[in-house]
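Subject: sequence -> structure tokens, single chain

Hey, anyone have a minute? Need the predicted structure for the following. Not urgent.
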Amino acid sequence: MATAYTPDTEHGDDNFILELNRVKEKVRTRFIELRECLSERESELMRELDEILSSYECYRREVEKMNEEKRDIEDVRNAIMGVVTTSAVVRSCQEKMLQELNEQLEGLEIPVKPKLVMFVCEDSKWLVEVNKLCKLVEVVSEIDYKSKTHSVMSVCDVGSGNEQLNSPTDVTVDHNTGNIYVADTLNHCVKVFNDSCKFVFKFGDLKGEGSMTYPKCFVICRNRVLVSQGDVFIEASHCIKVYQLDGKFVCQIGKHGGGELQFNYPCGLATNESTGDIYICDGANDYIQIISETFQYKFQFGKGFLHYPLDVKLYRNNIFILDQSNPCLHIYNKNLVLQKSVVSRGEGQQVVSSYSFFIDRFGNILT
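Reply:
Had a minute. Here:
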């Protein structure tokens, strides 16, 4: 049976108070020790954090420096290309050399196949290929994937005439009419041919409200033709221009810059047929801009990951993006989650080394 505490009337309370004070002193001493220990650990963590932040800042400066150097190199390259391609003397020499080469090849029995097919597009009748190196356009029959062959049906030669081209950079087909639209870059216009490869009309040129400098890529969206363009010497040329299918100018989208509806060397274009959204490769800004069918900005993605995206295609809820600097073909799902990247590895393996690509109705990717 427990007994109640009965303090000593003379010394019991004093002893109890002394013992209590000793315990309190021990607790206070231990608390001070723990606080000092925590303070030292906090100082260590702060030093480590400062080192991490310092390292990150150094890395960020290095990345910015590399990006600036890359942009400077790209600007110099584009400036050189612009000077060379706009020189009348150089163009004349190029045409003369190509004419001499064609004369030398006339006697050969084996047909000469273009060495660098840059852009392709398909409809129900033809596969259309643009050869930027030889400045030609070929309209060919269906590719035989087993024998890896195809037969040429028509070729446009070099020049400024209606049925001639000068450095074409993109081609597409209007599936309703069968008309073939070609970006005739150094002739500063878009030329339209019918499904028999006969010239129909052209639009753009260097004068007027709907003038073009160097048209690069285009896409047909809801009975309108959207054309991307950009020139190193003309800041105002970095934009998307919109035309009706008959070539009548509608409006201009965006201007030069790095913000919403601003572009820096816009390149490849693609459209979501179900929503009408338009995907734009904003080359030197290193991301993809998405705008609505009414040309309103929606969002952008790829900043910090993409490095000068050149072309974009949509196929079965996936987004395919051709990246120039890597070079690499990135595949995203509809939620913009990266699924796979196909990297250039050399001859005989997976190769991504062109300026554009095409996905046929069988899901084959042609680069």
